[in-house]
Amino acid sequence: MAAHNELGKWGEDLAAAYLAKKGYEILERDWKSGHHDLDIIARDEDTLVFIEVKTRSNRLFGDPEEAIDYKKRMSLQSAINHYVKSHRTGRDIRFDIISIVGTIGSTPEIEHIKDVTLI
């Protein structure tokens, strides 16, 4: 596995553990819909939460969440719409970002940005 893929997997594992510790119920990880994917789908009380995880080893090129550009936001919106329709969920929904900066074996910085507007 390429180093950036290992870092991304590490970040998603950290994010899932972080969310579980905060009381979220993890429903899905790496959910795919065609060319679109959702990193983590969780339940926070009565709200269905779609979480994009961005992991970087440092901030040389900006904060991790800055990598979620317009094209990525459109892809996420499409995947969320498909998930909601295919699972016929009537729950409130929310989109969050978890930003992780660090390297495998280090103590990472984790920032949970809640209720982000996609478009």
What is this structure's SSE topology?
Layout: H1 3-21, E1 25-33, E2 36-44, E3 47-56, H2 70-87, E4 92-101, E5 109-113
Parallel strand pairs: 3-4
Antiparallel strand pairs: 1-2, 2-3, 4-5
Write a short abstract of this structure.
This protein has helices spanning 3-21, 70-87, and strands spanning 25-33, 36-44, 47-56, 92-101, 109-113. The chain is α+β, with helices and mostly antiparallel strands and 119 residues long.
Can you walk through the features of this model?
The protein has two helices and five strands; from the N terminus they run H-E-E-E-H-E-E. The mean pLDDT is 93.
Series of secondary-structure elements, N-terminal to C-terminal? HEEEHEE
Number of continuous helical runs: 2
Helix content percent band: 25-40%
Class from secondary-structure proportions: alpha+beta
Please give the alpha-carbon distance between the first and last residues: 33 Å
Number of strands: 5
Strand order of the largest sheet: 1-2-3-4-5
The Rg value, from CA coordinates, equals: 14 Å
Q: Main beta sheet, described? A: 5 strands, mixed
Residue share in β-strands = 35-45%
The low-confidence runs, each spanning 5 or more residues with pLDDT under 50, are none
Coarse morphology: globular
Mean pLDDT: 93
